[in-house]
Design brief:
The complex is a heterodimer of chains A (584) and B (248). Chain A is an alpha/beta fold. Chain A folds into three domains: 9-241, P-loop containing nucleotide triphosphate hydrolases (Rossmann fold, 3-Layer(aba) Sandwich); 256-303 and 552-583, no CATH class; 306-549, Rossmann fold (3-Layer(aba) Sandwich), CATH 3.40.50. Chain A is 38% helix and 21% strand. In chain A, the strands form four sheets. Chain A has a six-stranded mixed sheet, with helices on both faces. In chain A, β1 (9-20) and β2 form a beta hairpin. The radius of gyration of chain A is 25 Å and the shape is globular. By secondary structure, chain B is mostly helical. Chain B has two domains: 13-131 and 226-247, no CATH class; 138-215, no CATH class. Helices cover 72% and strands 2% of the residues of chain B. In chain B, strands 1-2 form a two-stranded antiparallel sheet. In chain B, a hairpin with a 2-residue loop joins β1 (89-91) and β2 (94-95). In chain B, α3 (39-55) packs parallel to α5. The chains are: A alpha/beta (584), B mainly alpha (248). At the A-B interface, α3, α4, α5, β16 and α16 of A face α7 and α9 of B.
């Protein structure tokens, strides 16, 4: 998308293309855009669309760190990035990498903060004020003496931002800084960036998959597709194309999809593009004829109710389970639950609440300190983990930990061979599964993109037809299309009677797919029930540091302010059809 | 994630001592262990190391370290007794000379290996790198590379245990009681570990470069590391042990 170039742009890209060494196709091609002083720009796009390559070009890592063919001109504060070194670019532009642990160059917070200041020759007398100022701006002053290994994911992310902020860059480029964070921590990172943007005038470019946050915090959004810029504009402009975005593999905020569908039905005007629940509530109230409460509407049946009380014997049973790591504090403090075949239990809660530890107890990797975990009658304390694996499959958050074979089909067949299936049958079943997922059977798994590797890991898990499927953040870092592939496969397994436990920070996914939700806080189950009912409990959501999905929040508000017919509406189409019904 | 290389928080004079002085002490103890021929002297060195661990408030970690190296030492002892054929046979294949040699080798292994690891537990790696640059004039890029490699040891070890966990959950028999089978099963996991390790090392190099790595000079460090009188006191026991090692 060509753009008129202005002289005061802090970043400008002119016909920029880049191909990594040995790769036939360019990772980005013909990029033309600029970022103005004090701007907050969000970048979104499907996996493999060139987002991280764009971040590397902006930070100067391309062409200075990664080898390949670079064409065009990338200017940072007026300087051609090819004509100066990476260090010179870094004096003006601070970069926060995708792998936050790799970003750390020291083992404690103080040394991490000092590192860049020392290297760039900041006078020693001003270093203490720079360090304390940056820590204060990020709200982590109290962590100054801590070892980095003891910090939570959110705290590490803020430290990475503070270490860059102390250098007083004019521009900050961040690559998916909230990928592993819970919703509350993700919001805190964005709020910190907004504060820096507003108060310090720092220009922010952030690559992110969380569309609701992009809409709320960014002034402009760029959408990448196959290395090109597909859309660039205000969030309202960009997300008005929600149908085209979905075809690219980019989700839009659910409230935007609602307003777009209302527009298509002629119920809303072209300017009525909603980016937040407040805006959607206002629009629908207006369409439905005012904000007065209408009586007489019938409450909708709620999703998930059909799955309750399935009455089957529990496949998974946790009874007063307690667990402590050696030499550590108690992580689980008396967790009890039952899970029947065909249920999909979403486990939600903030980082460090004990969710992942709970899943490791369910697959036998960890044994409870007290209490019992029983899977299909098998007590995990008495059974070997490899024996439990015959009943339970786990999809880990990082697929690279699961992959160990040279081709995709061998990787999938390996799961079957571990269960004692013969070579020929294992390969045959693996080929069918690989084909079902549309994966390249002969490709080396590590040569595929992150999303594809996650689907390889998923294929290796579902091919065994487990009785219990455990998913730890199955959609983290995936684009919309990949997310749907993963969740549809999970749904298919559930429909065949597999019980599913899913740890998830994406409440839209929880709302769309979970039949039950368990809220974990400080090692305890604080609520267990239907997702839409628990999402309606504001105090519980605050305690669990979780935000209710937009559609449920909107329907809750509309049922109170417009009509009871909105009660329980959990999908975009539900809200649209109720609105249409009220008008018609 | 915790490992024997993690810094052990504390406020003793050993914690506060100059990193170069602690390094000198550790090297002296290693040298004494290398020079000493007497099993009693070697036992004395090990006792000194345990006492140092107690003083530094890290007895549990010191004992864990001692236990770990003792297992390796036991293996060395058995191998030595089998290899040395001189002397009078005592029991089975063991001769009196073999017994003495095996004992000496085993104790020396423990006394030689423990000091450097203990020094790393009592010194922040950043301080060690900065002090080495300031006082020993080690080029910063070497000091950074070595300390980063040491910092990566527990990180990669944690990564490996997570890979093993994931494979165990898949059904790979890492929970087998047979150590040889376990080793055989671990070999194919070298690939994922190597790939993730290389990617992480590269990302760290990029992060360091983007924060001015190539601009660093000897005077860049905000903290200064002057040698003071108490640092001499820190090295003194090491020198005494070297003399004793030469004598015994």
């Amino acid at each position: 998308m060509p753009e008129a170039f202005s002289d005061d742009a802090l970043i400008s890209l002119e016909r920029v293309s880049f191909s990594y060494e040995g790769q036939p196709r360019p990772a980005v091609r013909d990029l033309n855009f600029q970022v103005g002083r004090g701007e907050f720009l969000g970048v979104i796009g499907p996996s493999g669309s060139g987002k991280t390559t764009l971040a590397s070009i902006l930070s100067g890592a391309i062409p200075h760190h990664y080898a390949g063919e670079f064409c065009g001109v990338a200017r940072v504060m007026g300087t051609d990035s090819c004509e100066v070194g990476l260090t010179d670019i870094s004096r003006r532009l601070g970069s926060v990498l995708q792998d936050i642990d790799a970003q750390m160059v020291a083992s404690n917070v103080e040394d991490e903060m000092l590192y860049g200041l020392e290297n760039f020759g900041v006078p020693h007398e001003v270093i203490p004020s720079r360090v304390s100022g940056a820590l204060r701006a990020c709200g982590i002053e109290e962590l100054a003496r801590r070892e980095i290994a003891t910090l939570s994911g959110g705290q590490k992310q803020k430290l990475a931002i503070a270490a860059i902020l102390a250098l007083r860059p004019s521009i900050m480029v961040l690559d998916e800084p909230t990928a592993a964070l819970d919703p509350a921590s993700s919001r805190m990172v964005f709020e910190t960036l907004r504060k820096l943007n507003a108060e310090e005038g720092i220009t922010v470019v952030i690559i992110e998959q969380k569309v609701a946050l992009l809409c709320e915090f960014c002034q402009r959004v760029a959408v990448m597709d196959e290395g090109r810029l597909a859309f660039l504009g205000s969030p309202r402009e960009v997300f008005s194309h929600s149908r085209e975005l979905r075809e690219l593999g980019v989700d839009s905020p659910r409230v935007t999809r609602i307003s777009n569908q209302l527009q298509a039905l002629g119920l809303a005007g072209a300017a009525d593009i909603c980016l937040s629940v407040d805006e959607a509530e206002e629009l629908i109230s207006r369409i439905a004829g005012g904000s007065r409460v209408r009586e007489g509407g019938e409450a909708r049946p709620t999703p998930g109710e059909a799955c309750l009380g399935s009455g089957g014997a529990p496949l998974l049973l946790l009874e007063d389970v307690r667990f402590s790591y050696p030499g550590g504090e108690e992580v689980l403090k008396g967790l009890s639950l039952e899970l029947a075949p065909g249920e999909l239990l979403a486990v939600v809660g903030e980082n460090g609440a004990g969710k992942t530890t709970a899943t490791k107890l369910m697959n036998g990797i960890l044994k409870p300190s007290s209490g019992t975990v029983t899977i299909a009658g098998l007590d995990t304390r008495r059974a070997r983990t490899s024996e439990i694996a015959r009943r339970v499959s786990t999809l880990f958050q990082d697929p690279d930990r699961q992959i160990c074979k040279e081709s995709v089909v061998e990787e999938v067949a390996f799961s079957l061979r571990l269960l004692g299936v013969g070579e020929t049958e294992a390969l045959s079943r693996a080929r069918d599964t690989v084909e079902h997922f549309g994966l390249p059977a002969c490709a080396a798994p590590f040569s595929l993109g992150r999303g594809q590797r996650q689907i390889v890991a998923l294929a290796s898990v579902v091919v065994t037809n487990p009785q219990l499927l455990i998913l730890d953040e199955p959609t983290s870092g995936l684009d919309y299309r990949e997310c749907m592939v993963v969740m549809e496969a999970v749904e298919a397994a559930r429909e065949q009677g597999c019980a599913v436990v899913m740890v998830c920070h994406d409440m839209e996914v929880v709302s769309d797919f979970a039949t039950r939700m368990l809220v974990v806080d400080d090692g305890r189950a604080v609520a267990d029930g239907l997702p839409h009912e628990l999402f309606a409990d504001e105090a519980l959501m605050r305690r669990a540091r979780v935000a209710a999905p937009q559609v449920l929040e909107l329907s809750r508000r509309l049922s109170a302010s417009v009509s009871r017919a909105f009660e329980g509406a959990s999908e975009v189409s539900d809200v649209v059809s109720v609105t249409k019904g009220l008008v018609g | 994630m915790s490992s024997v290389l993690d810094y052990s928080e504390g406020h003793t004079s050993l914690h506060r001592a100059n990193p170069v002085a602690k390094l000198a002490l550790a090297i002296c103890v290693c040298l004494a262990a290398f020079l000493s021929q007497s099993p009693l002297m070697l036992l004395g060195i090990i006792a000194f190391l345990v006492a140092t661990g107690v003083y530094a408030g890290m007895l549990r970690r010191t004992l864990a370290l001692l236990a770990g190296f003792s297992l390796l030492a036991l293996l060395m002892f058995v191998v030595q007794t089998a290899l040395v054929r001189q002397g009078t046979p005592l029991l089975l294949w063991v001769t009196d000379v073999g017994l003495q040699t095996g004992l000496r080798v085993a104790l020396r292994l423990v006394a030689f290996a423990m000091p450097l690891v203990m020094m790393l537990s009592l010194t922040r790696l950043t301080d060690l790198a900065n002090a080495s640059v300031e006082l020993l004039h080690v080029p910063y890029r070497y000091a950074f590379t070595i300390t980063t490699a040491l910092r990566f040891v527990p990180i990669f070890s944690d990564q490996m245990s997570k890979i093993v966990e994931a494979q165990t959950a898949r059904g790979v028999e890492f929970d087998t009681p047979n150590p040889l089978r376990k080793l055989h099963l671990m070999l194919p996991l070298a690939a994922p570990l190597l790939i993730s390790s290389v990617a992480r090392a590269d990302a760290t190099a990029l992060a360091a470069e983007e924060r001015g790595f190539y601009l660093r000079r000897r005077s860049s460090s905000y903290k200064r590391y002057p040698l003071v009188a108490t640092d001499a006191l820190c090295v003194l026991p090491g020198l005494v042990l070297v003399v004793l090692g030469i004598l015994f």
